[in-house]
Write a structure and sequence with these properties.
globular, Hypothetical protein af1432, 291 residues, 2 domains, mainly alpha
């Protein structure tokens, strides 16, 4: 394989640029903290949501979506929270917020609609696997949603280099990860973990992002295993409709630890497809980029 003349990125400089990216809004951080508390009252959540007009509008839009059957009848934030429920609210709010962040983190090489569809699909699949295994569903959804965010960061900060890497991957029928490592010297998994750290997500979420292509060997099932398996399942289902779709290699140990039963797998896949369609209908990026 002939490599184009692309110099590896300066890792230290790349980390500095990631840390210079906007932090998550304070309202979002406060809201995520509230939603993680046990027996939290609806009033502080409604008050916090009301501080961010765009986020409040998104919650009302979600509550009034056809999925909930209340079209046009929900006018207050508190009623919207009641309709959505606290557990779905936490994941929906995170997804809505990251839609805005993803809109701001792109260059020209990636197709944002495809990226967003794959991210939503992986979040839904990771949450379904977590529920089946009795693990934390919210963390699984978060890590699944963020697992590829490093692609957006690289596309935003280094659009020319990223475009060359993606083109090289297509021409050589190689995974994106291999192209990034060969041409750029850093991977989207590493960069995504740097951003998640900058956004103050939990250490286990950082590890799931940084190692979602190569989970560590372990005796116990981990969040990283969930995201690794979810990523493979969503690629196999081709939920994003990518022209050059390919299922990444599955780590035997991670798949063994996940061990979805042959009997339950069809039901799991059907659930992922259904929930993906529901979320895609109500959470879409506002911009779309041609590849």
């Amino acid at each position: 394989m002939n490599l184009p003349h692309v110099l590896p990125l300066d890792r230290a400089r790349c980390i500095e640029q990631v840390r210079a990216l906007p932090s998550l809004p304070a309202v979002v951080v406060q809201l995520m903290s509230l939603l993680q508390q046990q027996d939290v009252n609806l009033d502080p959540i409604a008050e916090t949501l009301s501080l961010d007009q765009a986020l409040a509008a998104k919650v009302l839009q979600l509550a009034n979506s056809p999925f909930y059957g209340m079209s046009g009848r929900i006018t207050s934030i508190r009623d919207g929270i009641n309709i959505l429920g606290l557990r779905p609210l936490s994941t929906l709010v995170l997804a809505a917020v990251l839609t805005v962040q993803f809109d701001q983190l792109h260059g020209k090489a990636l197709h944002l609609e495809e990226f967003w569809c794959h991210s939503i699909g992986c979040a839904v699949a990771a949450r379904a696997l977590a529920e089946e295994q009795g693990l934390d569903e919210a963390s699984a959804f978060t890590a699944g949603l963020l697992h590829d965010v490093g692609l957006l960061v690289l596309d935003s900060l280094y659009p020319i280099e990223m475009a060359q890497a993606l083109q090289w991957a297509v021409e050589n029928d190689a995974p994106h990860l291999q192209a990034e490592q060969a041409l750029l010297g850093v991977s989207h998994a590493e960069v995504g973990a740097w951003l998640a750290e900058h956004w103050h997500f939990a250490p286990e979420v950082l590890e799931a992002i940084s190692r979602h292509h190569n989970p560590p060997d372990s005796a116990q099932l981990s969040l990283t295993d969930l995201v690794h398996g979810a990523n493979a399942l969503v690629h196999a289902l081709d939920l994003a409709g990518v022209a050059h779709e390919a299922v990444p290699p599955l780590h035997p140990g991670a798949w063994s630890r996940l061990a979805p039963s042959r009997q339950n797998l069809p039901r799991l896949l059907a659930r992922v497809e259904q929930e993906f369609e529901q979320l895609r209908a109500i959470l879409r990026p506002t911009q779309e980029i041609s590849a």
